[in-house]
């Protein structure tokens, strides 16, 4: 006989235990052991950033656990995340919330991320605790690292890019956090460059100032709402404003040992790699014997830095020898090893002083008078 559900009146009392509803094999239950260890000293790290006399705040561990849920299940919107935690029993259990506990408002996350979490560098602290746990379990070997970057789209319209020289910031725009930080960074960089030039002119280093590394090219357009983002076509071949998320990965079990965010430009992404390698060595005493990367990292400057660090590069060299502007390509020149000079297709000789340039290359040059009249 076909059954039928009958319920005319709700029960007055229920016997319900959230712990019993989450299967032992559930991802969040398996993760909870490690998350509990990683967040053990969370409140100690954040205590200096809270007032002793104000009303109680949202538990920071609750917010971090909710963000972990969002990361694991691909919930990028914090508004959506709050709705899902409200409805999902496993999410509530992982966040240490009972069935009747109130979920925080979504605006709490951005307030804390740009405030306490950022000032205390809390997210990096938690990240490092996770890496330490992976090392303790033997999941990080430290012999070989790989590096790469992925693009995250910025919260900026791709239709409102403005050339830097044409952008006149209004007072209202200067009050926004993203714009204020961008302008402060420009002022800091200008002061650093001025100081470097002053030291170079005065010979403050005692033997002539070291050549400064080449600066990246100024962007063609920037976003008025998020000027630190970069105009890029890397993600899905669609031009947009974005950031590069740079990962340093131990190749033994593909454990990420460091991460650095930059504008989505190849120049910045390559420059972030020495920062990550040095920080990993300083924090975890891990220094790789070899580094794996794609052709974007195969520049003379970066390969020279790896050589000084005694790290073997497994990186294709970025071949920029072929010219498309009608000038001679590198392969058009012949080299005389005995005399240590090149000869160009026009028969002129290129000699060198033997000095290593800033990009770790040796320059061979012809006379300006010869090149000036060459077609």
Characterization of the model:
- The protein is an alpha+beta fold.
- It has three domains: 119 residues, no CATH class; 151 residues, no CATH class; 43 residues, no CATH class.
- It is 36% helix and 13% strand.
- Strands 1, 2, 3, 4, 5 and 6 form a six-stranded mixed beta sheet that branches. It has a three-stranded antiparallel beta sheet with strand order 7-8-9, with no helix packed on it.
The secondary structure category is alpha+beta
Mean pLDDT comes to: 87
- What characteristic shape results from the CA principal axes? elongated
Helix content: 25-40%
Structure characteristics:
375 residues; 6-stranded mixed beta sheet; single chain; 3 domains; alpha+beta
Topology diagram in text:
Blueprint: H1 27-38, H2 42-46, H3 60-72, H4 78-87, H5 89-94, H6 107-113, H7 116-120, H8 122-136, E1 144-153, H9 171-174, H10 177-202, E2 230-232, E3 240-250, E4 255-263, H11 266-284, E5 290-292, H12 300-308, E6 312-314, E7 334-336, E8 341-343, E9 349-350, H13 368-372
Parallel strand pairs: 1-5, 5-6
Antiparallel strand pairs: 1-3, 2-3, 3-4, 7-8, 8-9
Helix pairs in contact: 1-8, 3-4
Describe, in short, the structure shown.
36% of the residues lie in helices and 13% in strands. The chain is an alpha+beta fold.
